[in-house]
Design brief:
Blueprint: H1 8-14, E1 20-23, E2 30-33, H2 34-37, E3 50-52, E4 59-62, E5 68-72, E6 75-77, H3 90-113, H4 120-131, E7 138-140, H5 147-152, E8 161-165, H6 168-180, E9 187-191, E10 204-209, H7 219-229, E11 230-243, H8 247-258, E12 266-267, H9 268-279, E13 284-289, E14 292-298
Parallel strand pairs: 6-9, 7-8, 7-10, 8-9, 10-11, 11-12
Antiparallel strand pairs: 1-2, 3-4, 4-5, 5-6, 11-14, 13-14
Length: 308
């Protein structure tokens, strides 16, 4: 039998910082805000209520199906353990875990020399995406090591900042980064399956996917999830590595795909077609820098317009 529901509002009120839930048995300190919990759902059954477990180790528990989500190194693991849940990212995660220790050092160099894309383009994109989240919640999937979000700090944003990734090593590096920057009280990190995101429908105002589309095994399923998360008028942006924009870049991309690091590398036209098909938003803006495609779009506002 799973744990009874917990009144999260009462727990939060008793915490040293208003709205901050601290689960003290975890090392390092585990923190999650009530504002973030109110945005979450069970990744296994989509039930909207997650309570705090009563076992020795900190965890969240679905009040619908009883699925348990433990905290590991201060990060909540939202990948279900249910036998019915098919997780397909083990190989990709293994290779990303190997890359993680060198990612921060190598990423800007590779971007400039191999992909022929100025690293500041990612920072510009992130500034815009975080700015569009004002008054709502922001999700970055995958968050990677938090390299881009860490650069902009997002001090002007009061809403929840959520980073989701499937790689433990990437998330652990992100946690260290945000801890050093003093951002752990504002950034919530989760391990999650991008095809089954643990966020309620219509809960997110701005979502960013930095170089994520080519890492997803079923890109159409992930784009469908992104669409589900967005509130009316919400903003989606991201970037993806593409083929056909440089012989050296294509040679490296071929090796990445062969070893399973990037399982969904495609051409610019192919990715744009998928974006238009799965998001079906009226306006899709895009630009290409070297072997990197940047895109952004808004979900239509469902509020009917009053005739002028």
């Amino acid at each position: 039998m799973y744990d009874a529901p917990v009144d999260l509002a009462l727990v939060a009120a008793a915490a040293p910082q208003a709205g901050l839930l601290k689960l003290p048995r975890a090392r390092p300190m585990t923190m999650i805000t009530k504002a973030v919990l109110d945005l979450m759902q069970c990744a296994a059954c989509a039930h909207p209520e997650l309570g705090i477990g009563t076992r020795r180790e900190p965890e969240l528990v679905c009040q619908g199906c009883g699925e348990r989500y433990p905290f590991v190194d201060g990060i909540v693991d939202m990948v279900p353990r249910s036998a019915v849940h098919k997780y397909r990212y083990y190989r990709t995660d293994t290779l990303l875990n190997l890359i993680a220790p060198l990612y921060d050092l190598a990423s800007p160099i590779v971007s400039l020399l191999i992909w022929k894309c100025p690293p500041l383009r990612y920072v510009d994109m992130a500034h815009r995406a975080v700015g569009r989240s004002i008054g709502g919640a922001y999700v970055e999937c995958p968050i990677g090591t938090g390299l881009v979000l860490g650069h902009i700090r997002a001090e002007h944003v009061a809403g929840p900042l959520i980073g989701i990734d499937s790689s433990w090593k990437m998330l652990q590096k992100a946690r260290k980064r945000f801890e050093a920057l003093g951002m752990l009280d504002r950034v919530t990190l989760m391990r999650g399956d991008p095809e089954h995101l643990p966020i309620r429908s219509g809960a997110i105002r701005s979502l960013q996917s930095v170089n994520g589309l080519h890492t997803f095994h079923e890109r159409k399923l992930v784009l469908k999830e992104f669409d589900r998360l967005m509130e009316p008028g919400g903003f989606i942006s991201g970037s993806a590595l593409i083929r056909g924009h440089g012989a050296v870049a294509d040679m490296i991309l071929n090796q990445y795909e062969r070893y399973g690091v990037f399982p969904m590398l495609r051409s610019r036209a192919f990715i744009l077609t998928e974006l238009r098909e799965m998001l079906a938003y009226p306006r899709l803006q895009h630009e290409t820098y070297g072997a990197v495609l940047f895109f952004s779009t808004h979900k239509p506002d469902s509020t009917p317009q009053t005739p002028g």
